[in-house]
C-alpha cells in the first residue's frame, strides 16, 4: 500500500481511503475518514497520522511566517455575523410596513438582517462597517432615548418657535428657540437651517408627551455636556 498526502480528486476517487486530519501544534482537533474497504490496519493508521502531523506542522510553520499570533479582532473584511436581542414589541417597527424599514437597512448598509420571532436579530456581512451601521440603525429603532444623554442629530424643520431635530433613528424632538443657544435668539434661522448636523441633549417630555431637546446645553464642537460641567464646577470645593 501507499499513503499519499494532499491527494488530488482522481486519487480520492480511485483509491480506498480518504483521511482528513485537522489540528494545531499541540494536537489533533478533528478527524474525518471515508473508506471503500472493510477496514484498515493499525500500521496504516499510525503511518497516516504521522504523515498528517508532518504536513500539519509544515503548514502551520508557513502560516506563522505571515502571522505569528492570532488577531485580537477579525479583519475588517472578514465575513462575520453579530447577534443582538430586541424587545418583541419592537420587531414590527424594525421590519416596517411591508418590510419597508428592514429593506432600507439592508440596501443602505449592505448587511444581511434576519429577525426571529423571539426578538433575536442576526446581522451578517463581510464588511465590519456595514455590520456596525446596521446594528446602530436597529438599536436606534428598538430602544428608547435616555433623558440626560447627548445625541447627534439633524435639523429636519425650522419653525418660528424652534427647530425639530431627528436625533434617535426615526425619533424627532423640538429644540425650543430658548434652547438653541446660550445667548438670546431672535430668529431660529439665525442659528440653524434644515440639514444642519447638531448635538442635542434630551431634556425630557413636555405635558403633551413631546420630546424636549436642548442645543445650548451641549458644546457643539466637542459634544461636552455644559450643564453637567457647570454643575460640577459649582459643587467643587473652593481652593484654600
What name goes with the CATH superfamily of the largest domain?
Answer: Nucleic acid-binding proteins
| Alpha carbon gap, first and last residue | 93 Å
CATH fold-level topology of the largest domain: OB fold (Dihydrolipoamide Acetyltransferase, E2P)
| CATH architecture call of the largest domain | Beta Barrel
CATH class of the largest domain: Mainly Beta
Mean pLDDT over all positions: 89
User: Rg from C-alpha positions?
Assistant: 30 Å
Helix content: 25-40%
What can you tell me about this protein's structure?
The protein contains six helices and ten strands. It is an alpha+beta fold and 240 residues long. The chain folds into three domains: 9-66, no CATH class; 80-142, Ribosomal Protein S8, Chain: A, domain 1 (2-Layer Sandwich); 149-233, OB fold (Dihydrolipoamide Acetyltransferase, E2P) (Beta Barrel). The strands form three sheets. Strands 6-7-8-10-9 form a five-stranded mixed beta barrel. A three-stranded antiparallel beta sheet has the order 3-5-4, covered by helices on one side. The longest helix is centred in the first third of the chain and has 25 residues, at 42-66. The mean pLDDT is 89.
Layout of strands and helices, then pairs:
Layout: H1 9-14, E1 17-24, E2 27-35, H2 42-66, E3 80-85, H3 91-95, H4 100-109, E4 112-115, E5 120-125, H5 128-142, E6 150-159, E7 162-168, E8 171-176, E9 197-205, E10 211-214, H6 226-235
Parallel strand pairs: 8-10
Antiparallel strand pairs: 1-2, 3-5, 4-5, 6-7, 6-9, 7-8, 9-10
